Every structure is written in structure tokens, then in C-alpha cells.
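Researcher: Good morning. I'm working through a list of sequences from a screen, and I'd like to move beyond sequence-only analysis. For each chain I'm collecting a predicted structure so we can compare shapes side by side. This is the next one on the list. No need for commentary yet; just the structure.
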Amino acid sequence: MISVVLPCFNAEEGLARCLQSLLDQSWRDFELVAVNDGSSDATLDVLRAFAGRDGRVRVFDRPHGGVVQAMNFGLEQCRGEYVARMDADDVCLPDRLALQKAHLDRHPHIGLVGGRVRFGGDPEAGRGYKAYVDWTNTLVAEEDIRLHRFVESPLANPSVMFRKELVSRHGAFYDGPFPEDYEFLLRWMDAGVRMDKVPEDVLVWNDPPTRLTRNDPRYDPDAFHRVKSGYLAAWLRARGVERVSVVGGGRVTRRRALMLQDHGVDIERWLEVDPDKIGQTASGRPVCSWHDLGAPDGEFLLSYVGNRGAGARIARELAERGWRMGTHFLLAA
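Model: Good morning. C-alpha cells for this chain:
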């Protein structure tokens, strides 16, 4: 059986659409564990109305404690072998549960599976979010997800399904000054959990103005960089890398890259394209020319250039010079 965990807080506006999309799934053998996180609107009424119509809906009402507490409480109530995440403002496509369950059944080495998602919102007003959605949809294979996990979260959190047994081994969602969904994925991958996606669309990922990633400081860019710097440093140390060179030398890049020092990884130099910066010193390290970089020679590179499309361009240029992602360099922004 599949357990779908749905934390809800003041979600009445889109909740009925979300719930109906779950009850309309082609895979019927599931339970919906819906946790009302102390909502002050009609969220609880909507949940109870759906529970009265369908016995698969189990409703739990708790004082407000935040999404992490609600999610972890829901996990404790799950009775299924597989757990699917869901957010109250998103919509599942009809075959989502069937596709992901079949994938986990066929691939016992995979611990967590996601899927492609559709952007739900104004593509003009939400250009940045849509660009991120488009980027995640390029990452389907396990290797691509593994190698790009330090750029941004490679999976849409409400699109994932995982084996419940892994929670007892690697922990549930952690609460802290960081994006809990990204930390969860990084921690599980660091522990060796293998992840991929089904190649089909499984979810409409909506972009309402109340979305937490728009309003909560735990989801600001520096919070993402702080949490991933520890896991990135651990990845580097496991491969014997204690010093790196960083592509990009701007003030924001330096601030984020220097977070690695707190985890025992030093920065040797900055690689820049701006001729006015080359030859200078920044944060005590020399600024060198990106254009003078040759074939790999024992140096490990991290790219912190965050402009959309820049990472792919840098990866292509490095590949042309003989650098291999995961062996000689990684993208970190």
C-alpha cells in the first residue's frame, strides 16, 4: 500500500482540487494521511468533508507547529510500504501513484523516485520559478540527479515517493534554519540512498503567492548554500579533496563559496572572465583568468556562477578541455 502524506496549513483555497486529484488516481490502494497544522481557515472542514466521502482519507488535527512537525507526525501515522509527499496547493496527475509504485517495484535498488512536473502559475511573473522547474525536468537519470544535487534541489519535493523503511535508517525531515526538503534529499543521498525519476509528468507544481519558498527565510538563497556547503564538503573530503578552485569571483560568489571553510575545505584561487579583476586578490586568494585554464592537472573546480544557463555553458567548456564532471569539477550554483 501507498501512504500519501499531506501537511495542510490555511490551505482551503486549493485544497479541494488537491484532494480530488488524489482520489482520482488510477492506483486505488492508498491511504491519504492529511495533517491539519492548526489552520485558522476552513482547511479542517474541507478535509473532514472529503474523509466523510472516502474512507481512504485519514484526518489528523494538531496545533500549529510548522510544516516539518506536521510532515513528521504524518510519517508516523503511515501504514504503507511506500510514502508519497504532497503539498496542499498542488495537483497530482492521474497516473502519478501507479507510475512511481511500479518504478520502485521494478527497481529495488532505488530508494526514492520523483517525476517530471508541470509549472502551475504565471510564466511571466514566475519566470525564475518556471526556469527552475524546467531545469529539474532535465534531471531524470540517477547519475544526473547525483551530479547536480549541489546546484539546487534536483527533485520537486511534493513529487517524491520513497520506501518507508528508509526513514528509520536515515531520519525524517529536520527542522532548522534551512530548507527541510533539500536537506532531507542531501542527507539521504549522502547516506547512499539512490534516487531517480520516472520520465513522465506526475504533478502540477503550483506557484501561489503564499508558497513558503516565497515567504520563509529558511528558503532564501543563502540558506540553501549554508545547508549544502556541509554536504558538499563531505562529498569532497570523501574523495580526498581538501582544496578547490572556484569559478566565479564576485562578492556573492565568494561569500557563499567561503562557507566551505567552516567544513574544512579551503579555496585556492578564483577563476574569472572579467579582465579588470584578473591579477587582483579577493578574500586573500588570487584572481586568475578562466580563459587560461587548461586540461585537468590535479586541481578540483567548483563553479559558483549562478546565472541561469551559466552552469551548463561552463560544464560544456570544461568538457571540451578534458574536465569530467564528478571527477574534476562540480557545479555548485
